[in-house]
Design goal:
This is Cell division protein FtsA. It is a peripheral membrane protein. This protein is about 35% helix and about 25% strand. It is α+β, with helices and mostly antiparallel strands and about 450 residues long. The protein folds into 3 domains: about 200 residues, ATPase, nucleotide binding domain (Nucleotidyltransferase, domain 5, 2-Layer Sandwich), CATH 3.30.420; about 80 residues, Dna Ligase, domain 1; about 160 residues, ATPase, nucleotide binding domain (Nucleotidyltransferase, domain 5).
Length: about 450
């Protein structure tokens, strides 16, 4: 854990330096697209005091000065699969955004949507002796959290304090300065497959980019799509992407659970290609222009020209299918994805939250009729979300497909406190996790 802790501190320092220079890029490496946004940080006071306990807690005002997107290549299930193809796609997106912004960027903050994320809830407690709580006490309390043995091939992506309690006064956001005897802390730990992160870092290095931070795609999508009340009272954000469906649960403005389902819009496209015997490109076009999940009596009579590649066989090139057929192929797969999401929500105990709002976002959430189908499977309180809270977005980046890219901008400018924002003494690291430390950061840094 020491290597990870120091490396994440180095990434935070690199991010702060880049933002003080006034420009940083965010990169959403997804299965269906790679999006790059260049941010210019405004104002001399880039980090003002804000809610939170760490030195990084603050608020930066920013403008998006460059944006570019390209079709993703070489990425499967949100993970780098073919390195040269992914490198080419990242270079295309970054160069397009740099050209629009007319500025060069060296540091990027990236999202990770694969890697089999797993959530852990940790608790720690220390004695503060009746005096005022200091930042060192907060650091000691976080170090006292007993980290579970999550395995040598896993790495910590997020480690955030979600609640503090001082002498049984719970629900404190910042305990510093309060008097008490016993300080307790609840933390949320999110781990991912270390090889997936290592591949992403190596791919960015091949593109001559320095990684100034990495965030879970399901986490940043929720930051962008959930309104304030939903984050406070409890809500789930389901990010329906191309290769993976991310899931995160928020409570008291903190993420308390994250998971992912290795299915997404690409599976629906593949089903259409197999069912109607057309190419993947044609299947994607049919899904986008004519797709849906709720059939009506009109759909039997609405015929769709399949078209596609000209083969020279007139009978094959002039084939048609009814929209009802298309819906009959799409609906079972969409139901399967939503059923899997429901299973993960039940396992996380989502039904015990005071508010059970579910927000669907991501490119695949735009399928017509999903707002009628999803409540039958997930529960009554379902809405389709899109990125909020960022003014001046380019027109093409205002849709639900860009939720994770826009959320990454907010993550960059309004960083939440993480374990590595605190000066935790070296002897305070959990000994069990030290023995299980993975050295990939040292190898790839």
């Amino acid at each position: 854990m020491t290597d990870l802790y120091q490396s994440q501190r180095a990434m935070r320092a690199m991010r702060k330096a880049a933002m003080q220079r006034g420009v940083i890029a965010v990169l959403d490496v997804g299965t269906s697209k790679v999006a790059c946004l260049v941010l210019r940080i405004d104002g001399p006071d880039q980090f003002r005091a804000s809610d939170g306990v760490g030195p990084m807690a603050g608020q930066g005002t920013f403008r998006i000065v460059g944006a570019a997107t390209t079709r993703s290549r070489g990425v499967r299930f949100g993970e780098v699969d073919t390195m040269p193809e992914t490198e080419r796609a990242i270079r295309t997106a970054v160069q397009g955004a740099q050209k629009m912004a007319q500025i060069r960027v060296d540091h990027v903050i990236a999202t990770l949507s694969g890697g089999d994320p797993r959530s852990y809830g940790l608790a720690g407690q220390i004695d503060v002796g009746g005096g005022p709580v200091t930042e060192q006490d907060v650091a000691r309390c976080m170090a006292a959290c007993d980290v579970p043995p999550f395995g040598e091939d896993r790495e910590v992506l997020h480690a955030q304090p979600v609640n503090f309690a001082l002498d049984h006064r719970s629900g404190m956001g910042d305990p510093r300065g309060h008097m008490g005897n016993t300080l307790a802390c609840d933390m949320h730990l999110l781990t991912v497959d270390s090889k997936v992160v290592a591949s992403l870092i190596h791919c960015l290095k091949r593109c001559d980019l320095e990684l100034a931070g990495v965030a879970s795609s399901s986490y940043v999508s929720a930051i962008a799509s959930l309104v304030e009340d939903e984050q406070e009272l409890g809500a789930a954000c389901v990010d329906l992407g191309g290769g993976a469906t991310g899931l995160s649960i928020f409570m008291k403005k903190h993420m308390i659970f994250a998971d992912s389902v290795r299915m997404g819009g690409d599976n629906i496209t593949s089903d259409i290609a197999k069912g109607l015997q057309v190419s993947l490109a044609t299947a994607e076009r049919l899904k986008t222009l004519h797709g849906g999940v709720v059939a009506t009596s009109m759909d039997d009579r609405e015929m769709i020209a399949l078209g596609g590649e000209e083969t020279g066989d007139w009978d094959r090139d002039q084939r048609t299918a009814s929209r009802a057929e298309l819906i009959g192929i799409m609906r079972p797969r969409v139901e399967e994805i939503l059923e899997e999401v429901r299973t993960r929500l039940d396992a996380a105990g989502f039904e015990h939250l005071p508010s059970q709002q579910i927000v669907l976002t991501g490119g695949s959430s735009q399928i017509p009729g999903l707002d009628h189908l999803a409540p039958r499977i997930l529960g009554q309180q379902v809405r389709i979300g899109r990125p909020l809270r960022v003014a001046g977005l380019p027109e093409k980046a205002t849709g639900a497909a860009f939720a994770s890219a826009v959320g990454l901008c907010l993550f960059a400018a309004h960083p939440q406190d993480e374990w590595w924002d605190f000066e935790i003494p070296a002897d305070g690291y959990p000994a069990r996790s030290l023995r299980r430390a993975v050295k990939w950061f040292k190898d790839n840094w």
